[in-house]
Design brief:
By secondary structure, the chain is α+β, with helices and mostly antiparallel strands. It has three domains: 60 residues, OB fold (Dihydrolipoamide Acetyltransferase, E2P); 72 residues, DNA polymerase, domain 1 (Orthogonal Bundle), CATH 1.10.150; 52 residues. It is built from ten helices and five strands, in the order βββαββααααααααα. The longest helix is centred in the last third of the chain and has 19 residues.
């Protein structure tokens, strides 16, 4: 699975972006909420992704934070809600507003999303109401900062010439403050015998 992509935004349209990662352009579908928070064309950005594999092909969906991705992944587990409808939901409401509508059983708000009728809205509320707090509610901005610290440490190791496999192995098991890039990097370099 592709967990995230980091690269330059090569193209942007109403459905998503093309992100250039090492000379390869990845088409990533995104919600309008995520699109509105992206950097300008040509800037480097990190997009958290969900890879959808089906018989007729593969699609990448991108998010600016892991909280939105986690909610998307919860939504697509509901019968009748596919990736396009889930993106529509996240385009209509922020992740917090959608979680609040589901938690408060606001069928009217959920059914106002394009592609979601009353029965599907009821199904979403019924299936997700009790699960969102534990799965997504605890995943706040701190998690995004911690993830960013580990990404930066990984990128630094790659920049030093270590392979992706060596980098993953070196950072595996790090249990310190994952938002502290330099501490994670020192740990990895010690494991690699270079520090």
């Amino acid at each position: 699975m592709i967990s995230y992509l980091r690269g330059q935004i090569a193209l942007r349209d109403a459905q998503g972006i093309v992100i250039d990662v090492g000379g390869v352009g990845y088409r990533v579908g995104m919600s309008t909420q995520s699109l509105s928070t992206l950097d300008p064309l040509g800037d480097e950005t990190t997009v958290y992704t969900h890879l959808q594999v089906r018989d007729d092909g593969m699609s990448l969906f991108g998010f600016c934070d892991e909280r939105e991705r986690a909610l998307f992944e919860k939504l697509i587990t509901v019968s009748g809600v596919g990736p396009k409808v889930a993106l529509s939901a996240l385009s209509t409401f922020s992740a917090d507003a959608l979680m609040k509508a589901i938690a408060s059983e606001d069928i009217g708000a959920v059914s106002s999303i394009s592609g979601i009728g009353k029965k599907t809205a009821q199904r979403i509320v019924l299936e997700l109401k009790g699960t969102l707090d534990s799965a997504i509610g605890d995943m706040g901005h701190g998690d995004a900062l911690r993830e960013a610290g580990m990404i930066q440490a990984s990128e630094a190791l790659l920049g030093m010439g270590f392979s992706a496999a060596e980098t993953d192995l070196a950072l595996k098991g790090y249990d310190g403050d994952t938002s502290d890039t330099s501490a994670a990097l020192r740990y990895a370099l010690r494991r690699l015998g270079a520090g």
